[in-house]
Every structure is written in C-alpha cells, then in structure tokens.
Amino acid sequence: MSQQDHILIVDDDRDIRQLLADYLEKQGLRCTTAADGREMKAALEQHRIDLIVLDVMMPGEDGLTLCRNLRGSGSPHANTPILMLTARGEDMDRILGLEMGADDYLAKPFVPRELFARVRAVLRRTRALPPNLEASPPANARELRFAHWRLDTVNRHLIDHDGAVVALSGAEYRMLSVFLSHPQKVLSRDQLMELTQGREADVFDRSIDLLVSRLRQRLGDSARESSIIKTVRNEGYVLAAEVSATPHDAGSPS
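RE: above sequence
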C-alpha cells in the first residue's frame, strides 16, 4: 500500500467522516470526505481516488444506489474499490452491496483500526493476485480469450463477440482472473476465497457464491444451464471453457 493512496470517505455523519479521515491520515493515507452523492461525484471528478469508503444509510441517494451507479456500464469509476459501511446485523445490506459490486463491507460500530486493516487488504487484493498463483495463461497476457469473450487485462473489462465492453468491479475482475488462470480445474469456495481475498479475509460467507452469480450474469451464463462457469456439487466451481492468451508485446488492440 502506497502512502499516496487517496481514500474518499462518504458518510452523512460529519463526526464519523472526520474521525475516520483523521485516523487514516495518521496511517499515511490521503483522505477526502463527502457528505452525500453530490459531494462524492464532485470529489471523484477532482481527484484520483484509490478506494471509496461508502456508508449505506444516507439521505437522498443511499450507498447501495451510489454503488450501483459507480459500477454501471460506462462509469469511469467501475474499477475503483468500494468498502461499504453497513448497520450491525443488516445481512441484506451486505448481500445487496456485494451483488452491486462492493469489494468488502464493515459493520458499524467499528474501531478505526479495523477500517484501516480492511482498506489495506482491499487495496492489496485489488492490485495483485496472490504471488503463489501458478497461472496457466502467461502472466504478461494483455488479453485472455474464452468462449466468445475477451478479458482486457489492461483496462480490466470484458469484451463480447460484438466488441461491446462490459465493465467489471474489482471483485468481479479478480474472481474471473482466478478462473481464467485455472481453466478446467475445480476450485473450492475456500480456494476461491483465498485466491481472491487472501488468508486474512473475513468476509460474508456467501460472498463467493454471490460473486460467481454476478459473473454469470455478466457472461450471460445461466446458473441452471451454465456452459462457462459450472457448479460442481459439493466441491465448488470450474471454468469449463478453454483459455488462450495474447501477450502484451503482440500489439493487438483491445
């Protein structure tokens, strides 16, 4: 994690915003705060933000709506990591947040030190898959092809057979990268958790299934008749498609 990492804290509670900003800045991070969606959008236009801490319960546009808009097709911030702040025990908010593209969540009340640990973990996961991954496609691949899809590893989005771009959240991109690095190999939920989240992950126990479900939706892959990401009962999931790679030095357009 770089000391130049810029965190945007979006929360309607002024005291919480300032408390979190003060603590994170003491840890070497740069912080900008916003009280609502309007201020969040202004901050995103003005600064290069590395991670957004986004509260769910806010007046006007709530955090779930803002998260969905950030992850929408064509959004310039579709790949910016999002850490959602939810009320203690509100499992539905956590599920919806993950489905809409959040990378992690943290339930209130919490101590600032816990938030810093989550921010550090999300930034690390976003920037690199674990170094012990033995990927089948070349590590320097610019583009990975499978089924009738292409994954652009530079811009971190999907391209369909007609050339249409499908934006991916950071969590979706990491999950798909793991599948494409281990084609036709059954991966358990625990393995997927470690490969995408790291050993210290402490995320909602349905997050892997939710991520797979979201990926299937992006790929137009029905869960009942899945042809790309198949469910292996009592074992996990497998990418059933063959994968080929285009290296960076090949010069092919994305």
